[in-house]
Amino acid sequence: MSEKITIFDIEELNNDPVSVCSIGIVVLEDMKVKETFYSLIRPPKLTFDPYRYKVHKIRPQDLKKEPTFPEIWPKISKYFENSIVISHDIQSDLNHLLAVFRRFRIRKPTCYLSCTLVLAKLFHPELQKYGLGSLCDFYSVDLENAHNALADSLACAELLKKMMEEHHYTSLKELHEKENVPLGRMTSSSIEPLVSSDKVQEVKMGIQKETVAFTGKLAHTK
């Protein structure tokens, strides 16, 4: 049975954890792109943040007529349910999604969790930079229109393919099992988080099994 892998990226409008203003999704089956999705999203507060605007060029006025997250979720929940869900820095992106789920009382999907940032630090601990752009340069992946949520998701999908090919894996579940790094797991009532990217080498070597919780101060990192 083929693996269903959903890769996503989000952008935030301001410092409010629920200010998700765009989402991009790439669905892989048998490591081939089966479907993509992109939408702007109108967050609860249309507050301008100069730093984030400089990153993604999305303005509050661009969002006034866009759907809210509760309006978008029924269209995209199928991508997350019973899938392996990945982003580049899953801890940060999932923290924002969980904040949105809490704010709007949305039931969490049941899915596994992985992360290209964690995998990059697993396979290449010698690198100095692990941002999406830096890894795309390292793996010769084209990244056009950086910080567009769909473009970033497509680049993340290509990174995943490159890492799996590099180490001769055809299954993401097999990769996690053989590398001794358990997949994270989310259900409607609980979360078993993926190991922190800073601790992945220790976990692989069996030194400890320290994980990170999706709580506390949220940081925007790409």
Fold and architecture overview:
The protein is 36% helix and 19% strand. Helix 4 packs parallel to helix 6. The chain is globular, with a radius of gyration of 17 Å. It is built from 8 helices and 7 strands. It has helices at residues 50-56, 69-80, 90-104, 116-123, 132-138, 149-166, 172-178, 200-204; strands at residues 4-12, 20-29, 32-40, 84-87, 111-115, 184-186, 191-192. The model is unreliable at 208-213 and 216-222 (pLDDT under 50). The longest helix is centred in the C-terminal third of the chain and has 18 residues, at 149-166.
What overall geometry do the principal axes of the alpha carbons give?
globular
Portion of residues in beta strands equals: 15-25%
Query: What are the segments in which pLDDT stays under 50 over at least 5 consecutive residues?
Result: 208-213, 216-222
Average pLDDT number? 92
- Span between termini: 33 Å
Backbone CA Rg: 17 Å
Count of alpha and pi helical runs: 8
Secondary structure tally: strands: 7
Structural class given helices, strands, pairing? alpha/beta
Strand order of the largest sheet: 3-2-1-4-5-6-7
Give the biggest beta sheet.
Answer: 7 strands, mixed
